[in-house]
Design brief:
Elements (H helix, E strand, L loop, with lengths): L7 H9 L3 H9 L3 E3 L2 E2 L12 E3 L2 E4 L6 E6 L15 H5 L6 E2 L8 E7 L2 H8 L7 E7 L5 H9 L2 E2 L2 E2 L4 E6 L2 E6 L6 H8 L4 E9 L2 E2 L8 E3 L2 H15 L1
Parallel strand pairs: 7-13
Antiparallel strand pairs: 1-2, 1-3, 3-4, 5-7, 5-15, 6-7, 8-12, 8-13, 9-10, 11-12, 13-14
Helix pairs in contact: 1-2
Length: 238
Amino acid sequence: MKALTSSLKYFIVQKLRISNQEAVSCILSGRVLVNGEKGQLTQVLRPEDSICFDNQYLKEAQTFVYLAYYKPRGIESTLNTDIQNNLAQTLNFNRRVFPVGRLDKDSEGLMLLTDNGKILNKIIHSNNHQEKEYLVTVDKPLTPAVLAQLAAGVVIMGKRTRPAQLEQVDATTFKIILTQGLNRQIRRMCYQLGFGVQQLIRLRIISIGLGNLKPGEWRYLSPAEMENLNRNLSAETD
């Protein structure tokens, strides 16, 4: 999300309709506070910043919503209310939030939703290899050779998938950690090796886990979860 203005000084000039010189005087004298602290002349403003002038708010802090949601099987990952079983209806949340990525109709598990476009775009448009973890149950017993192939990469849609971390859970179930998000990737990988997917649950996106959520339930992300997520996203740009 872009900064609101080029600087705090410009914001004060526009908001109070005063000259540049008057704005500089107000800021340097400490009459302008940004998030409770003395403002700086060239300070770039963010939507989440609050601005006070002589103890009166010129701008309230914009707060964002971050949700972890267990998408049930059969729900479409869309906010389009013209589509049956859409996300907006089943989520029934009182603010408009947007899904971070998709989870196909036949799959279930963790989805992140937010109204913070900066976070959303960072995750969706990242060029880095972000981890997503899934629990997969197939229609017949797994073999060591099949597990090794899934981990090493399988050719689907004309390209080989990236190597993945794999852990067998039981005869027909495994956990897999992917670092890419090709369309219906896990189902296509399994199909290519002669297996049908009976259940697919997304357990984790980057550092955010599904936790104890049940299908159809949602929760707010905790401050610690947001701190970890932001740390992971910041590390990608370092």
